[in-house]
Amino acid sequence: MAATANFDPQSVLKLDGYLEPFIPAIAHRHERFQKWKDIIDQYEGGYEKFARGFEMMGFNVKESGEVIYREWAPNATEAHLIGDFNQWNRLSHPLKKNTFGVWELTIPPKAPGVCAIPHDSKVKISMITPSGARIERIPAWIQRVTQDLTFSPAYEGRFWNPSTSERYQFKNPRPPQPRAIRIYEAHVGISTSEHRVGTYKEFTKDTLPRIHALGYNTIQLMAIMEHPYYASFGYQVTSFFAASSRYGTPEELRELVDAAHGMGITVLLDVVHSHACKNVLDGLNAFDGTDHQYFHEGSKGRHELWDSRLFNYGSHEVLRFLLSNLRFYMEEYKFDGFRFDGVTSMMYVHHGIGTGFSGGYPEYFGPGADEEAIAYLMLANDAMHALYPSVITIAEDVSGMPLLCIPVSQGGIGFDYRLSMAIPDMWIKLLKHKTDDEWDMGNIVHTLTDRRYGEKSVAYAESHDQALVGDKTLAFWLMDKEMYTHMSDLTPMTPIIARGLSLHKMIRLLVHSLGGEGYLNFEGNEFGHPEWLDFPREGNNNSFQHARRQWNIVDDQLLRYRYLNNFDAAINHLEEEHKWLSAPQAYVSLKHGGDKMIAYERSGLLFVFNFHPTKSFTDYRIGVDEAGEYHIILTSDEKKFGGFENVSCGGKFATTPMEWNGRKNWLQIYIPSRTCVVLGK
Known about the structure:
The protein is of the alpha/beta class.
């Protein structure tokens, strides 16, 4: 076996000296990762071959028309391929099993270059277990499954093999990795205004141009991996290699990604490797009749809150399946990276259930850490970054695990970014429990700047979970029922709407410019979408009323939603120009509790916020390090953003060379109540 490559502890201690007592634990998990990497290098031809499992497993068609089908099912004693192509004959197409529990069948072509299995026809694998029971499953590596709810909620496997002329041909190269990511998190199904499931085609034609115009450079697509229950938001996956058929065909998804690339937009997949749907008939659960093929057996293999199955990350074939799954979406659909869902659940044996993370380091490196799962995440990040240097990986972690976003070679877990999950929680608590004059500027700034040194964060003001029925978006918390009655310019601007519009804009600019090295917005929240998300289900008579995005209201030139949309676009375009997300963390010179003022400098710009509900300030003194003449380049008070035009762009302010708030110079500005301004030189 190859010699184990140890990381240098100094690389960790340079980032955080407090990690010194935990160097043995960090070294131990790195050794576990390295052992797997050595095995993959020695026996599997490295990541290059190992992560191409989809070219060996499942269905692979040769140019001659010959089909080779392989399936890992170690418990089965017999296996046959059945389907439309052989009239579901359970004896005509037997598979042979090798010593590793992999079954194989070669089906000769019907004629030269003609497959014996018709394109898009139904297929299954029929197996006999040691007890003599017959079980039938959808192939685990299947690339297309469809659901006919009038017949059954269970999916049916399909043999996807379009002709060359029908196969989508990519036209655009991948865009270069963004300097900093501005993410638009989107769900294809809800991206229509109509009362139905939206399609890949519609998203490409109608939604992509909106995202591009708003200035987002990255899209994060949710609910793509096939899931039987639409209302699960895509987080109960049954067929990992099948892109959801409810939105269209695999070729139409390829077209969507390619069109985004043509606009210079990076496309990330929301990948669910933290757990799997417990369905047996159309999922991986009990695939070969055992409790423990892809998953841990017994309670260790079950997530009690999510009612789902948990992968055995210590299994060679499970690692092949999951690493190949990532590469499949990079190769076959040209995705540019991944947002890994449920990383907290993976990294701890308690899955975060009933655990509040205080930030104490023993919580991360003690017996609570799941080293098998952490080693998988290290392998996944290491493999994807080795194979695709421009790949982007993001971790959804609420625990604050140190070294999560440090390269594996330096003792880290290898993600590029983590989601700053404390930020949306903070805003909800403020809006729910505090009056405006109780807002603590120091606590707001602390939450926005409290991130690990050397690790990049994606900040967001509100999460997609808040858009779901039973919760409220920021716009709803701020304006509630008045959104239905007073969002027209033909109605008077009520105090509630004026406050709501102002704070919505201020919160977004503050989070965008202070909270991280990336920014994320969930679809519709940029314009304060007025209604929650509620997918069709029994409890709402399977209604699509709330499972859509009402683009008509932001397009209506009489409604005030467009002001929020305009401001969102202005922030993104200003960031593109001044690049604050990729600049060092901001220097905060002012967080005044009584005045409700926040001021900071980042990337050569001066950001000033007045959160006071009633007080406007004339000649408010703000410290700034760099001397010179500053002018306002963005203000939330402009008319096109629903402001009152008390402050206008272009106003000039000269600095005075005298120390103020720890800065070398100061300037004085007029800053009205509930207004923010950005000044540049």
